[in-house]
Amino acid sequence: MKNIPFFILVLFTALSIQSQKKLNQYGYILIPKQFSFQDEPNEHNINKVLKASLEKYNFTSFIKDDDTIENINPCDILHLEIEKSGFMMTKMILIFNDCYGKKIFTSIEGKSRIKEFKASYFEAIGEALKDPNISEHKFTPAKATVNIISKNQPAQKIANAKNNSVVDFILEFKNKKYEFLPTTKNEYKVRFNNTIIGSLKAKENDETYILNTKNIKGTGTFDDFGNFILTRVNPVNKAVIKDIMARTN
């Protein structure tokens, strides 16, 4: 029984180290223009203050739609949410989700007994930011590659472009995963089951790509999360079909 407190301490330490490691793999944070508890965008200047605060902890922060995000793989960006609760006391928890909506990290709970809304929000958020996993954040990318991405374009891993056997990204469509291998800046080989089955090529002076494989033919663009929005035409009735090829890496 005497060992229980020590075991709990070891477990807590291990979980804390794991959480720190997860958060350290991300260097970018996307902050919404308006959190669920706000009545208007940037109410009380919370969003802009949060942006400045996170910059102090080695994050590069953006406010959605206000800031331009370029040359960054969307899946290298965490999306910030704030969970607010409490009646006699304001409680705030910062939640960091990845590009697929998966929860990567949840901060400690910040609390405030101040009755005035603005002051209580800032105090509670400030307490949550004291979480050592945030305040001691050090960006250490999981992979030492260079990702270049802009809206409606896939990641271009320059370090991999010299080796066409290296997969740049993977898209899943109808329960099948297709690997995309860069050949040039705007052209890829498509591989399925270790066999090259076609290509993906960008149109000149356009953000549209032409997908030409044995079984899938069409055009499309990439969304902010790296998913490919595919447009095809049914050869029988000429109906336009739109599908999503979901990015999995």
UniProtKB/TrEMBL annotation:
Name of this protein: DUF4468 domain-containing protein
